Amino acid sequence: MKKKLTLVMTCLMAFFFIFGNAYAGKREKFGEDPRHKTAKRVKFKTSTEKIRWKMVMPWSKGLLFYDIATHFADSVRLASAGRLDIKPFSAGELVPANQTFDAVSQGSAQMAHGSPLYWKGKNEAFVAFASVPFGLDAEGYNIWLYEKGGLEMLQELYGKFGIFALPAGQTGQEMGLFSNKRASKMEDFKGMRLRTPGWYMDIMNNLGASVSPLPGGEVYLALERGVIDAAEYSTPAINYPMGFDEITKYAIQPGVHQPAFQCDVIFNKEAYEKLPDDLKWIIDICAKETQLWSYNWINALNAKAIRLFKEKVEFVMMDEDTKIQFRKTTKEYLDSVKAKFPDVKKVLDSQEAFIEDYADWRKARGGVAPWPYETYISGQTFE
User: Fold this and answer.
1) What's 111-179 look like in SS3?
2) Cα(114)–Cα(136) distance, rounded to whole angstroms?
3) What is the tens place of the pLDDT at every residue in 51-60?
4) Residue 14 falls within a domain, yes or no?
5) I need a surface site. Which of 188, 232, 321, 351 has the fewest CB within 10 A?
């Protein structure tokens, strides 16, 4: 009896193996990892040379962005067992913040950590790789950069300046405006004196606001002295140490100007190309690890910071009509920028095509936002 049962089980297993595989084979495998072939046949050996690099940045030591830059340097040092030792220099220590890009391009520093947003003066298209009003969120940037050709476009743009680049720091959506004037409707923003940089500065000016792109270190004093009515800077965790809640009454949300904020590491191309192959792979993997870690780290801190802000300022949400009007105004502005700058058009067209392509999945998965139980059953199912 035992032998018969074993024989039956063996036949069944064979049947499911043969016909199960035949059924699975009706379609080809959906997607593949292109790196797998490279990893199967490693043709280089571990290098023994010890290399020392300098990393400059536009960040001051008090900002969490500095910690993200340091995290990347630490990851490389750990993974290479110290063979590639990158020393971070904060803004002004080695070069002024506004000379970071040129220092790397010209080779006076081997690399930098920063954000493409800061290189707007070099090429308008850099802004699109950092943050676009009503544009890609953190998830969108990750997919677009790594899977939809965004990284290749980024490297092509930097390549014009003798620089190689990798994404290395995603901090997610930023807060809206800390303000001494309440604003929830479009007309409320007219005449307001604001601090914000980049494309959002132009958009707000077009709406009748008066905007200045003040450096981060000057924002607190400008708010305190009434030079400006409102300002945005970054995420809750990065804003909290800056103390904006001590001198303003309102936090106007959401941060439509930056659904995500993308940082990167940039390398002098000549210095990068001299690296042994194993260290190039270590840099690549550590940049991706920093991209993952930074988003999780910052957003975990954001959850605490936002509760602390609520103790001192009133949170004001823009109404739906205002957000829609902002979206329309933003599209008009971005279309005008695309018409002036071919590089901007190339990048934004690619991002917009991805947003369109991703819409079906975004809609299909909607309505299961992980709100607390009582919040969800009260009817708030979408984020």
Assistant:
1) EEEECHHHHCCCCHHHHHHCCCCCCCCHHHHHHHHHHCCHHHHHHHHHHCCCEEEEEEEECCCCCCEEE
2) 19
3) 999 999 999 9
4) no
5) 321
CATH of the domain at 164: 3.40.190.170
Q: Is residue 142 part of a domain?
A: yes
- When divided into structural domains, the chain yields a total of 1
Look at residue 10 in the predicted model and tell me its pLDDT.
Answer: 57
What is the rounded radius of gyration, in angstroms, for the C-alpha atoms of the chain?
25
Torsion of CA 124, 130, 136, 141, to 10 degrees: 120
Are 95 and 219 in contact by the 8 Å Cβ rule? The answer is no
Angle between helices 342-364 and 138-147 (to 10 degrees): 110
Q: Residue 199: which of 347, 331, 320 has the closest Cα? A: 331
Asked, for residue 308, whether it belongs to a domain, the answer is no
- State which residues form the domain around 91: 49-172+260-300
What's the pLDDT score for residue 225? 95
Torsion sign, CA atoms 333, 121, 214, 56:
positive
Is the C-alpha dihedral spanning 283, 258, 197, 160 positive or negative? Answer: positive
Residues in the chain with pLDDT < 70? 1-25
Q: Is residue 225 in a domain?
A: no
